């Protein structure tokens, strides 16, 4: 029914929508006529080059936040000049300041604005209202680059460009050189590019843009000026090489080993629109550690991606949420079952925790007609566990993960400057007689002509080819949302049948649902006497099981967010839920447990980060009606900016869950539950000392402790109606469900950007882990137990060097 609805919707409406232009008021769109220059300026941030003197000026900036279109004060007037040659585009900006002594100038490294004031340039050579390349330079000289698509920002994108700043008693100056190799543009004689300039004035809490932006309608990326006059430029050969080498010394439990590796990352512009990114013999040894927790849920813990190759330029591949990049190089499918295959007198000699990534590449780009095309491919090697007979000394191997290929294909057609339809396919093929998987998705995200309503939907098909059968599944989503004005509302429906499964290359915790959602909100776009922003919302949901058709939960709630003129933010929400049928905690298909009605409340505050000391506080309390079950959560996160070079952020999290009926074990055909208390404390610290914008020392620390304690002689058996009946359950060393979990991670690194795109990182890392059954230990004694465990210590050096083919070519030509 759902897929027929989607097809009918597109047959009836897509041709009409496609032919219309979206009503965004650009009648006052500003235009800048760029000038070709013969002598390139020196990029030093001083703007005293002769080429700048006769260029036209882009000025008259207008307020974007917190107000709406107010002219920039004369004391903060901003002038921008733009020029180009055969190699690059040059931008010179002069930001006046009526109070230069108040200009915030915090030193940070690449892609980190911090609290600094900044100057921003958005460039869109296709002028499609969607795909902008963003370049930011701060008052300290730090550079940030990214991609902006509609209202979404992605700062994992990195390219090579130059920027320098300078200061005097009237303001500050920024000078930028953007090589054409950093942009994608069509190959034609005369070009017009969308462009936007913005300026953040931190100490006044104000942001201004060159071209006016109406926040109450449409997307920010639609409100750009026009850059004209670009003629006779050719897209350069976009070939960049990133050779790297790394050396590592590791010590663990009185054993030491060394390792050396080298590899190459390649970026190649196939044509003016498409780029190939490849990593050969990848090395992810210095990727940040994962925030591992004690996980007693029926679901795996989801981790963020810390590997640069899987975060840069992946916006196309994340369409439809079918790609969870941690699947590539994840734990082998047979890793956890290796111990179950032990024979008499055998021990496990080797059992790799991760599948080795041999190589990966991705091709992505967008044609002149706004068709985005992306292809991703990765290959992991065969992994084996090694067993040894302790009596005979014989060894044998067992494949825990076969040779595997992962790929994704995406087609994304954008139109009307804010709408798109997409097709995506993901595929996992494993060598031999193993599980394979394929998922296809059809997506649309469409706005009406007035930009007042958004229609969004998905239809996804999954197919898993297991060793003995093939299983197909289906999921869909459809939503309608009011997207214009202060008062907004929306409804949505989400569906998945019981066989929908995308977990070979995606991540999906639940299926077999038929859920409905609604929301309404009121927000302001211009400041009031007390508030810069505030938003009030009311929402609700009704969740059902698809097969068999039965209610799972109904809930309503409300929330608010506000920020004062002094940048003090606060908010909260209150949710009221009916009885909840949990079909996943029992770990058996068709069974569920009933949890009583609940009320969950949350409050938070966040102080002004511009001050030397700032803080975030979050409180949460949940109570289940007619039940002793309740939960408490507290998060404290103070931060201190000791100077413009040194800042520290500390975070403390405390969670307590009391008297929760939780899964324990299977006993014969019975499902055993027990009453569990779970407590956790997390301490983390991030500190950074920046010598300048090219060199820094960074400290990252985390200690997470958690216990799960089951009440003695309070076990039950789960019955078919979701209720529990008392049952005796024998606790011994093997069947003890109690847990004491403690993990410690510390990274200390020195980073040096010694040339554009080139970096050296020296990293010291230590980690300790302990898990046992001593659930009654408090935090102090658990920490003492932790430090009795062997410490894993790693010292590594990684050097990456950027090579631009065009620079090499020019050297050889000269």
UniProtKB/TrEMBL annotation:
Q: What SUPFAM superfamilies does the database record attribute to this sequence?
A: CBD9-like
Cited InterPro entries: DUF5916
A Pfam family recorded for this sequence: DUF5916
Q: Where is the DUF5916 domain positioned along the sequence?
A: 235-812
Show which residues constitute the signal peptide.
none
Q: What is this protein called?
A: DUF5916 domain-containing protein
Organism per entry:
Salegentibacter flavus
| Source taxonomy | Bacteria, Pseudomonadati, Bacteroidota, Flavobacteriia, Flavobacteriales
